[in-house]
C-alpha cells in the first residue's frame, strides 16, 4: 500500500532517524558508484573520438564498424555495473537477514513494490532533497562504524541474560523438586513407623490376652480401640499430606518442563523436556507397596476386633 505523506514531509521515507541515516549512507555510496561508471562511459566515447574520428569522411562500413565497437564497450560497462549493483544489493540484504536471524526473525520482501512508480518517485524526491547543493548536508570525514556483530553486542547480551535467568529458575525448580521428594520420603518413613507400632501392639495384645483378667481385658480393648482411632486419624492426615506432596511434586515437574521449553527456544541446546526422575518412580512403587501393606494390616486388625 502506498503511503501518502503530507507536503511538509515529502522528503521522508517513513523510517526512524537511525534507519533513514543508513539509507542516506547507501544512497551516497550508490551515487558515487554511478558517477564513476558514467565517467567510464563518457571516456569510451572520448576515446573513440580521439582514436577513430581522424578522417573527414567515412564509408558506411567504417561508420558501422565504429558504432559496433562502441556498442560492445558501452554494453560491457553497463552490464558490469548492473551486475555489480545486483551483487551489492544482495550483500546489503545479507547483512539485514543475518541480524534478523540472530533474533530468530524471518523477514519478507515484496518484489512488486520495487516497480511502484509512486514509491520510486518518492525515493527520487528524497534523494533530491538530501543531495542537491542547496540542501546538501556537510559530510564529516570520520570513520563510519562497521556493522557490529550481534554475538558481541547488546543483542547477545540480552539473550545471555535471558538464558541465565531461565537457568537460575530451572535450578530453583530442581531444588524445589528435590525438597518435595525428601518430604515425600519422610512421610513414607513416618507411615512405616506407625505401621510397625500397630503390629507390635497387636502382637502384645495376642500374647497377653489369655493372662489378663476379664476387667483388665475390657480396659485393654478400650485402649486398643482408642489407639486404633488415633492411628486412623494419623493415617488419614498422613495420606492427605502425602496427596498434597504428590500434587506439589506434579506441579513442580510441570513448571520445570515449562522452563526447559522456554530455555530450548532461547538457546536450542537445552533439553526439550524434563523427564520424570527415577527417585519419583521408586517413590510411587514404594507408596503402592505400602498402601497394599496397610490394607493387609487392616484385614489382620479386623480379626482382633471384639465380637458382639
Automatic annotation (TrEMBL):
UniProt-listed GO biological process terms: negative regulation of protein localization to cilium
Ranges in coiled-coil conformation: 156-307
Cell compartment(s), UniProt: Cytoplasm
One Gene Ontology term, aspect cellular component: cytoplasm
Main location: cytoplasm
Superkingdom, natural source: Eukaryota
Residues making up the signal peptide according to the UniProt record: none
Keywords of this entry: Coiled coil, Cytoplasm
Keyword Membrane attached: no
Protein's job: Regulates ciliary localization of the BBSome complex. Together with the BBSome complex, controls SMO ciliary trafficking and contributes to the sonic hedgehog (SHH) pathway regulation. May play a role in neurite outgrowth. May have tumor suppressor function.
PANTHER family with a match to the protein in the record: LEUCINE ZIPPER TRANSCRIPTION FACTOR LIKE, LEUCINE ZIPPER TRANSCRIPTION FACTOR-LIKE PROTEIN 1
Record family assignment: Belongs to the LZTFL1 family.
Subunit structure: Self-associates. Interacts with BBS9; the interaction mediates the association of LZTL1 with the BBsome complex and regulates BBSome ciliary trafficking.
Name of the protein: Leucine zipper transcription factor-like protein 1
Gene source species: Trichechus manatus latirostris
